[in-house]
Amino acid sequence: MLHDGPSFWGLINPQWSLCSKGRRQSPINIEPDKLLFDPHLRPVQVDKHKVAGHLHNTGQFLVFKADKEAKIRVNITGGPLAYHYQFEEIYIHYGLSNEHGSEHQVNKYAFPAEIQVYGFNAELYHNMSEAQHKSQGLVAISLMVQLGDTPNPELRIITSVFNKVQYRSQTAPVGHLSLKELLPETEGYMTYEGSTTHPGCWETTVWIILNKPIYISAQELYALRRLMQGTDVTPKAPLGNNARPIQLLHHRTIRTNIDFRKASDAKCPSMAPDTRYRANTWQESTLSHNVV
């Protein structure tokens, strides 16, 4: 299990000082009653192209990295983004039980897992390594993962190779992955300025948290939880429970394109002064509200 203390996040490498001293750190707990509706936020656009890459067990995280040799590039645009971002990698965070696992939370509710799709600003910077240190360098799309009977077909492309990356340093090829099909069917999202949740916690990340989960089967989740931090000779502990603890918001604004003030017959229910959101309704569909 990862720890958020100085031994891991701040003092081993001086370049990671933001992990302990930064004021725009991620992940955060989203308090829905503090969301700011922004009518100017556009839908997020992701290219339909399929990508190939490799899934890595780093001993700390499970990471999918797109093959840099491939000529196909997947762009992420729209939403709160002012530039074109190029998809680079996916981080998978999860718990060893269904009660926790996601890094971001809503009203302190956590999902069993969270998939984070990272891209870099390809208009201003040459690659991920350069962009992660620079202003507006990165975008991260957060997909909450919920246990369900109808698992995401695109997610299965990744989960099908879990048995090949059970131990640290193991790598498995993954082909024909469509990021667009991996995303849930929703245009609603929350967005804020934050950091990467892995060292060095660079505060250059525009977060987009989609307002609907994708689903994983119990069998796939079991396979995920069998992954280990160590080698086959010295397995050590399970790789799970690798979510970074919640960070302070420090007066940052969390915007949303979801207008809860719409009429009661609209897709989003009306928002009255005496109501509040109930985060766990994400398990069913979109973020909803409940009369106090």
From TrEMBL:
Pfam families: Carb_anhydrase
InterPro entries: Alpha_CARP_X/XI (IPR041878), CA_dom (IPR001148), CA_dom_sf (IPR036398), Carbonic_anhydrase_a-class (IPR023561)
Residue stretches making up the Alpha-carbonic anhydrase domain: 1-258
Domain of life, source organism: Eukaryota
Gene Ontology biological-process annotations: one-carbon metabolic process
Molecular-function annotations in GO: carbonate dehydratase activity; zinc ion binding
Ranges in coiled-coil conformation: none
Similarity remark: Belongs to the alpha-carbonic anhydrase family.
Official protein name in the record: Alpha-carbonic anhydrase domain-containing protein
Organism: Microctonus hyperodae
Lineage of the species this protein comes from: Eukaryota, Metazoa, Ecdysozoa, Arthropoda, Hexapoda
